[in-house]
Amino acid sequence: MIRVLVVDDQFLIRAGLVGLLDAAPGFEVVGEAGDGEQAVRLAAETRPDVVLMDIRMPGVNGIEATERILAEAAERPPRVLVLTTFDLDEYVYGALRAGASGFLLKDSGPERLLAAVTAVDGGDALFAPSVTRRLVEAFARQQAPADTAPPPDLDVLTSREVEVLRLTARGLSNLEIADRLFISEATVKTHLNRTMTKLDLGSRAQAVVLAYETGLVTPGG
C-alpha cells in the first residue's frame, strides 16, 4: 500500500483526491490537510510515503511546507508531489528547489494522478521530465535569494557523473541516457544516485535545478 497525505486548501478538490485514492487499489489516504501548517503536523504524525501538496495556499504555502516536512522527517522522507493549476508556475520551481519530487497539473486525469503517485513512490523523482525541464528553464535565470547558500562545486563529480547529470537535466529518461552513453540503465541510476549523494541532494528534481543553476546546462541549450 502507498500511504498518501493529501494537502489542498480547497475542500472540493481535496475531497475529490481523497475519494479517488480511497477507491483505487494499492493506495491508502492517511490524512488530509487544508493548509501547510496542518500538512507539516500530519506528515510528522502519519509518516506518509507520498504527499500530494497544493502549492498555492494562504499562510504556510506548499514551498515552506515541503521544506519543513523533508527537514523534519525522522527516517525515510516522504516523496512530495506538487499539485498546481499552471504548468509554468514560479511556485513550483521553488518547491522543486526545496526538494519536491515533481509536479502534476490539477486537471490531469485519474489514471495519470495514480501513475504519478506510484512513480514518485518508486523513486522516479522527476515525473514528466520534459515539462519540468521547461519549467526549470523558465525560472533558472532568476538568481537565488541572498540568504540561499551557493550551489555546490561540481568538481566532486566524475566526468561520467557530470554527463549523466547533464542529460538528466535535458529531460532524458534513464533508458534514453543509457542508450546515449552505451551503458545499462542500472549504471545510469548508480551514477545519478552517487551524484545526489556527493552533492547532498534529496531528489532528482533538485539535481535538475542544480544543473541549471551551476551553468552545466543553459536554458534553451
TrEMBL record:
<feature type="domain" description="Response regulatory">
    <location>
        <begin position="3"/>
        <end position="121"/>
    </location>
</feature>
<dbReference type="Pfam" id="PF00196">
    <property type="entry name" value="GerE"/>
</dbReference>
<feature type="domain" description="HTH luxR-type">
    <location>
        <begin position="150"/>
        <end position="215"/>
    </location>
</feature>
<dbReference type="InterPro" id="IPR001789">
    <property type="entry name" value="Sig_transdc_resp-reg_receiver"/>
</dbReference>
<keyword id="KW-0238">DNA-binding</keyword>
<dbReference type="InterPro" id="IPR058245">
    <property type="entry name" value="NreC/VraR/RcsB-like_REC"/>
</dbReference>
<dbReference type="InterPro" id="IPR016032">
    <property type="entry name" value="Sig_transdc_resp-reg_C-effctor"/>
</dbReference>
<dbReference type="Pfam" id="PF00072">
    <property type="entry name" value="Response_reg"/>
</dbReference>
<dbReference type="GO" id="GO:0003677">
    <property type="term" value="F:DNA binding"/>
</dbReference>
<keyword id="KW-0804">Transcription</keyword>
<keyword id="KW-0805">Transcription regulation</keyword>
<protein>
    <submittedName>
        <fullName>Response regulator transcription factor</fullName>
    </submittedName>
</protein>
<dbReference type="GO" id="GO:0000160">
    <property type="term" value="P:phosphorelay signal transduction system"/>
</dbReference>
<dbReference type="GO" id="GO:0006355">
    <property type="term" value="P:regulation of DNA-templated transcription"/>
</dbReference>
<feature type="modified residue" description="4-aspartylphosphate">
    <location>
        <position position="54"/>
    </location>
</feature>
<dbReference type="InterPro" id="IPR011006">
    <property type="entry name" value="CheY-like_superfamily"/>
</dbReference>
<keyword id="KW-0597">Phosphoprotein</keyword>
<dbReference type="InterPro" id="IPR000792">
    <property type="entry name" value="Tscrpt_reg_LuxR_C"/>
</dbReference>
<dbReference type="InterPro" id="IPR039420">
    <property type="entry name" value="WalR-like"/>
</dbReference>
